[in-house]
Design a protein that fits this description.
The protein has 325 residues and is mainly β. Helices cover 2% and strands 33% of the residues.
Length: 325
């Protein structure tokens, strides 16, 4: 089976349904002639007989020595070793509408886009529910950003209003207010210029909430990322691009909205784990996945304390599942 990309809400689930029939199950009809029915008193070809000539074509008989699904088959899932999908870099270097750039492992940036000034303008506290007419978590500003590198976006039309940018000092998320839009098509690998007119502290997460005059200075730039497998992700990685791969080692728990949080165990014998947050309906315990996208945290770094640092599949293009071949 080939690699399968975990897609968004438009994904088509290709699965085989397995079930147990009841007394009305038509698959149980004509048992008098069923050579595999161990309860059939006329059955002379017992399923434990490895030389059973009538079973040589039965691909589901677990005792058949010619069974293509035999537990001793080298392609069996029990013998599958979870490995990185070397060719997978999420959006980086891809050819989607909002994808692009060139993946550069451990790359460094040597330009200041003025993101430090933007971060410094974000209020230190969130909105106070005691003052419903005032949002203490937002601030109106007038800050120019020049040459910020786009490292990730969300999906479809939302990509132009929610995306991640970085310079030599830090990485930051742009998430425009719900009723706000901007018309420039945003792509990974672009360097963009714009004016920030509003910033927001949302659950401790600093965000750019309103912008003006977005223009593209260049495209196809190198996008730095870190091979973080086996490493413990920290708040210092917040909003930066990492690649990790490993196995889903629990059944997941609900963690807000339609999302579930799973334990992603990575790094082989190192035993490193990260929280994977996703709204995908296809992720389950035992899956082998490769993730490449920005590191998130909840609450965000402005909240202080001990936030949960995680990888979050905000865009389904950031994660791909590896299957036995």
């Amino acid at each position: 089976m080939s690699n399968r990309l975990i897609t968004g809400v438009t994904a088509v689930l290709l699965a085989t349904a397995f079930g147990c029939g009841d007394s009305e199950d038509p698959s149980k009809g004509n048992n008098d002639n069923n050579a595999n029915n161990v309860n059939n008193v006329n059955n002379v070809n017992n399923v434990n007989n490895v030389n059973n000539m009538n079973n040589v074509n039965n691909v589901n008989n677990v005792n058949n020595v010619n069974n293509s699904n035999n537990g001793n088959n080298s392609n069996n899932a029990n013998n599958f070793v979870c490995t990185r999908i070397d060719s997978f870099y999420g959006q980086v270097g891809n050819d989607g509408e909002h994808d692009g750039g060139a993946p550069t492992v451990d790359g460094t940036l040597d330009f200041d886009a003025n993101l430090s000034a933007v971060l410094a303008a974000v209020p230190a506290t969130e909105d106070d529910e005691n003052t419903p007419n005032v949002n203490e978590g937002e601030a109106v500003v007038d800050i120019d950003v020049s040459g910020a590198l786009v490292t990730s976006t969300t999906f479809d039309a939302f990509a132009n209003s929610t995306f991640w940018i970085q310079d030599q000092n830090l990485a930051m998320r742009v998430r425009l207010d719900d009723n706000a839009t901007q018309d420039t098509v945003i792509k990974v690998g672009q360097k963009i210029d714009f004016k920030v007119t509003k910033v927001l502290n949302f659950a401790g997460i600093p965000q750019i909430a309103l912008v003006e005059g977005v223009t593209v200075a260049s495209e196809g730039n190198a996008v730095p990322y870190t091979e973080a497998n086996g490493s413990t992700l920290t708040i210092d990685d917040f909003n930066k691009i990492v690649r990790v791969w490993g196995s889903i080692t629990d059944a997941g728990t609900a963690c807000g909205g339609s999302s579930f949080c799973f334990t992603l165990t990575h790094g082989g014998g190192s035993g490193a784990t990260s929280t994977l947050r996703t709204s995908s309906e296809f992720i389950e315990m035992g899956d082998c996945v490769t993730f490449m996208g920005p590191v998130s945290a909840f609450p965000g770094p402005l909240a202080g304390g001990n936030p949960t640092v995680q990888v979050e599949q905000t865009n389904f293009d950031w994660l791909q599942e590896n299957f036995p071949q």
